[in-house]
Amino acid sequence: MPAKLVLRRSEDRGYANHGWLDTHHTFSFANYYHPNFQGFGSLKVINEDIVAPTKGFGTHSHREFEIFSYIISGELEHRDSMGNIEILKRGDVQFTSAGTGISHSEYNIHKTLPVHFLQIWVKPDISKLKPEYHTKRFSDIQKKNSLVHLISPIVTGALVKKENDSTIGIHSDFHMFASILEPGKNVKHTVQGENDKMRRLYLHLTNTDGQVKINGNETLNEGDGVFITDVKSGEQVSIESSGEKNAEFVLFDLA
Fold it and tell me: Torsions phi, psi of 99, nearest 5?
């Protein structure tokens, strides 16, 4: 059975411009509501945010979510109730396991340039986790014409917590990848999991430049996404850069 592709065009996403914040919502969020877009499995939020210079999100609280930011351009200052203070730049992935509760703020500290990033929320498989904070940097060189693994599940046992050292660990059967494809280049994603289990994928092309084709068929333009279902562990999905500029995208693979 071929994979089923359902496009989520950029212009169909939720949108708001608050002056200091220009934001697109893939799923229902804040004042945007769509009954058909309440999340995708454990993936509940993909917001593409552009924050004006010297502006940002004041201190606010979260609990029972895995929350992470993928920095596309600019600088984002993160401060939280665990004492973490960090300035995030392009290539950084900042990850907070909110667990039983944290407070944080996120500001664009640059005086003249905006910051552009993806904000992603995933529901963990385990409740009442101890809050944690992690960051890793994944360079453009790593992602160039390659599919780089950013986030992978934490495998827990009775006395063991095992993580992949090259990725950020998440408390969910969830993987995240990223790539920057030059025109004409392609990558193949092998669906994660074991034992031919059915999985689901979501690919988001960042609102920068470029185009991609999925399995040689559907074309995505900047800001577009696609739901990919009817795929099993071990099967492959092909992504090709079909435009005249580099195409940067993220790919989520989940149960």
Answer: 50, -125
Helix (H, G, I), strand (E, B) or coil at 18: coil
* Segment (H or E) for 180: strand 174-181
Residues 92-133: tens digit of each pLDDT = 999 999 999 999 999 999 999 999 999 999 999 999 999 999
Greatest distance between any 2 Cα atoms in the chain: 52
Sign of the CA dihedral running 48, 53, 58, 63: positive
SS3 content of the chain, % helix, strand, coil (to 5): 5, 55, 40
Render the burial of 15-41: b for 16+ CB within 10 Å, e for the rest.
eeeeeebbbbbbbbbeebeeeebeebb
Residue 205 CA to residue 220 CA, distance in Å, equals 7
DSSP three-state, residue 11: helix
d(C-alpha 245, C-alpha 243), whole Å:
6
